[in-house]
Amino acid sequence: MDPKSSSPRKPVRTAIFPVAGLGTRFLPATKATPKELLPVLDRPLIQFAIDEARAAGIERMIFVSHPSKSAIERYVREDEELDEALRAKGKDALADNLSDNALSDGEADVRFVMQHEPLGLGHAVLCAAEDVLDGPVAVILPDDLILGEPGCLSEMIAAYESGANGHMVATMQVADDAVKSYGILSVTGRDGQVLMADGMVEKPDPADAPSRQAVVGRYVLDGSIFEELKTQEPGAGGEIQLTDAIARGAERVGLCGFRFSGTRFDCGSKDGMLAAILAYAGEKPEYQQVLGNSADTLLAAE
């Protein structure tokens, strides 16, 4: 591990969920339904993210949303009126399931803050600055679904609190023609699942990319990230890029990547969402016949 990491770490107590995006790639479905509530079978994307944060021991969850997406807050919080209505109809099991999914006041401190303009992921994280607890913070992008046990965030926090560098980003190997769609890590060494790095480049040309290690939607960031974001100039796409702010602070606080063990699905895209649904259904015995019938139909059509 890097010498910058020798001092004891403060625990990661806060997770930020940037959920203000309009989900234009899923229109017209997202005209009235936030993309974070689109289901993978019967489980909304946001639920996977919440459960991942729960399993990692997160104490405060901050949702950076938009005024047009009030349905997310309604989903996240307990709904006593709906609970009573279901129980009055004898649907206790369904009411219990909804209660288990919701974030109760006694379980976690839930905050909602608004990002009124689409100024980038870095700006979304900065919107949460006044509400974070002391110490490092996690950032979870719900449309980056990562299936696996233990959860990606749990793995990252364990590595981070064992002494990994000051900013940690989840990474995965991508093909040459895909690097222009990601922030790419400049790798200098490896220690198990941890990749030492000296910087990142946002959406580079493949010829200029420092590696093929792409940054995906999980971060554990030193608390100094908010000071970097306050002075961060717009980058790719004219937006305030989180990766640019992380790269600026890398020399001072350190930087590393983390090769998570789960499988990542880009559920911000239609093909990624379909792949996630099929993978998730494949884990459920009750859907094996349906999947088998679908495979037979495809073979017969060839």
TrEMBL record:
Keyword terms, alphabetized: Nucleotidyltransferase, Transferase
All residue ranges annotated as the Nucleotidyl transferase domain in the record: 20-278
GO biological process: UDP-alpha-D-glucose metabolic process
SUPFAM superfamilies named among the record's database cross-references: Nucleotide-diphospho-sugar transferases (SSF53448)
Main enzyme class: transferase
Catalytic activity: alpha-D-glucose 1-phosphate + UTP + H(+) = UDP-alpha-D-glucose + diphosphate
EC numbers on record: 2.7.7.9
Top-level taxon in the UniProt lineage: Bacteria
Record has Cell membrane as a keyword: no
Single Gene Ontology MF annotation: UTP:glucose-1-phosphate uridylyltransferase activity
Entry keyword Nucleotidyltransferase: yes
Record-stated family: Belongs to the UDPGP type 2 family.
Protein name in the entry: UTP--glucose-1-phosphate uridylyltransferase
Source organism: Thalassococcus profundi
